[in-house]
Amino acid sequence: MAKTKILFADDDPEIREVIRLLLASEGYEVVEAENGDEAVAKMDPSVDLIILDVMMPGRSGIAACAEIRKNSTAPILFLTAKSQDSDKAMGFSAGADDYLAKPFSYAELTARVKAILRRYQVYRGKGEAAQEAGAVALPGLSIRADRNEVRHNGEPVALTDLEYRILLLLAQNRRRTFSAQEIYERIWQEPYYYSANNTIMVHIRNLRKKLEDDSRNPRYIKNVWGKGYCIE
Fold it and tell me: What's the pLDDT at 86?
């Protein structure tokens, strides 16, 4: 069986060396890149996870993420010294799946990597069967959970892992309102914290951009004032 492949980009060669050795000791194949441009150039369909430092000379991690997202839905983890909510929102808007602020322990990094890969493999069918089966049909929108496939007006829609899982949760529980806390704890499988509400908002906004004809007047994912989100 082929090893899980991780693409890691950081402009600091010492950090690249340490993290390469750490991830290799966990059994992962690691492809290194020293900046955002090289990360984009080395990205291919065999990569299972991308780890990007945000602040790199030339093309930043956020710009590299946005470029990679044009052709791939593989999960992307940001490593950054910035931890403000606005920086996280920018990263999630570019298509990131998770965010780890420096300084972090190596145990924290490996735990986060394993959690992201486990969720990705389950929900995208890479190594394990999808947990959900069957189809969900809405006017102009279809979700085949057994195939991890979403179509809008008959055309396939490329969603990130988190976007897909949020959509599936809402679609399989139509007319039920989920608070930001419920969505976060179900999808991220971590305890909720207050600023995670902004994270949910960004992912909902990204979903609407991809699924709605008019994202400002959503047809599918509705806001329930003061309570959360639902699909009617």
Answer: 65
Tally of CB atoms within 10 A around 149: 14
CA 117 to chain CA centroid, Å, is: 11
Phi, psi of 106 (to 5 degrees): -65, -30
Kindly tell me if the per-residue pLDDT of 9 is higher than 80.
yes
pTM: 0.71
Q: How many CA atoms lie within 13 A of 4 on its CB side?
A: 22
- What is the CB neighbour count within 10 angstroms for residue 217? 8
Q: How is 28-50 classified by DSSP, letter by letter?
A: -EEEEESSHHHHHHH--TT--EE
State the residue for tokens 């806390």: 181
What's the rounded mean pLDDT across residues 78-105? 77
Residue with token string 């940001």: 78
Chain segment 168-188, per-residue pLDDT in tens: 899 889 899 999 999 988 888
Residue 154 burial by Cβ neighbours in a 10 Å radius (0-12, 13-18, 19+) = exposed
Give which of 137, 158, 153, 144 is closest to 206, Cα–Cα.
158
Measuring CA to CA, which residue among 40, 216, 231, 65 is closest to residue 150? 231
Say how far apart CA 122 and CA 117 lie, in whole Å.
9
Residue 172 CB neighbours (<10 A): 14
- 3: exposed, middle or buried (Cβ count in 10 Å: 0-12, 13-18, 19+): exposed
Look up residue 108 and give its two tokens: 């924290």
The H or E element that residue 78 is part of is strand 76-80
Give the SS3 label for residue 62. Answer: helix
